[in-house]
Automatic annotation (TrEMBL):
Gene3D superfamilies: P-loop containing nucleotide triphosphate hydrolases. This is ABC transporter ATP-binding protein. GO terms for molecular function: ATP binding; ATP hydrolysis activity; transmembrane transporter activity. Keywords: ATP-binding, Nucleotide-binding, Transport. SMART domains: AAA.
Amino acid sequence: MSFIELRNIKKEFKIGENIVKALDGINLSIEKKEIISITGRSGSGKSTLLNILAGLEKSTDGEIIIEGEHIEKMGESQRIKFRRKNIGFIFQSYNLLPQYTALENVALPLALKGIEPKERIEKAREIMKQVGIETHENHRPNEMSGGQQQRVGIARALITDPAIVLADEPTGNLDTRTSIEVMELLINLFKEKGTTFLLVSHDEVAKNYTERTINLLDGKIVDIEQIFRGTILT
Ligand SMILES: Nc1ncnc2c1ncn2[C@@H]1O[C@H](COP(=O)(O)OP(=O)(O)OP(=O)(O)O)[C@@H](O)[C@H]1O
Ligand SMILES: [Mg+2]
């Protein structure tokens, strides 16, 4: 069995009389330390897939197995506990708490785990240094640039040393140059730490940074290679 196994994952939303199949039978195996990008046009199911993997949303059907543990069988509180321990999530719009400083935002996951202030401040400073944002520990989100806020978001995702990091368009709100800096930071960190990383992006450039690309269309996986062969044969 692989590190992460998705088996026939379906997610349906009922809108009035209609059923939207956001995910329509996703089968995917992911090995430890793999770095994968998930691409596909708007509405293809990328965010839904990531949210289900993170345990932020529940699938309608199918199995999600991470290191032998069935996520879909867990109750709400067990799922939250599992997520806090194993998964880091990086958002397109950073999702920082506006009233907190950068340092407090980064340390928050440790506060939720009940770690003492002294230890969490120490750990937050260490991780902020790793992502190059140690100079801004007392700044609030609205006192930082997009790139700086995303570095805080990255530090917050990494402070618990998660085995898996999921990022939904992490460079979507950044200019090209800052995007490249942030992507290189992420990829270098994850290679060094051996983190399993799934990156959602509809930016073609993301593919250059990752080892495998999963292409989604209408809630189904359409393999890049398959598309390529199809083009050649027809
Ligand atoms: N909470 C919801 N209620 C109803 N439909 C939803 C909900 N969330 C997503 N959908 C639908 O599921 C489909 C997949 O949405 P999703 O957000 O996963 O797409 P995406 O690939 O992330 O798109 P984008 O690139 O625009 O972020 C879309 O048709 C969307 O309208
Ligand atoms: Mg999305």
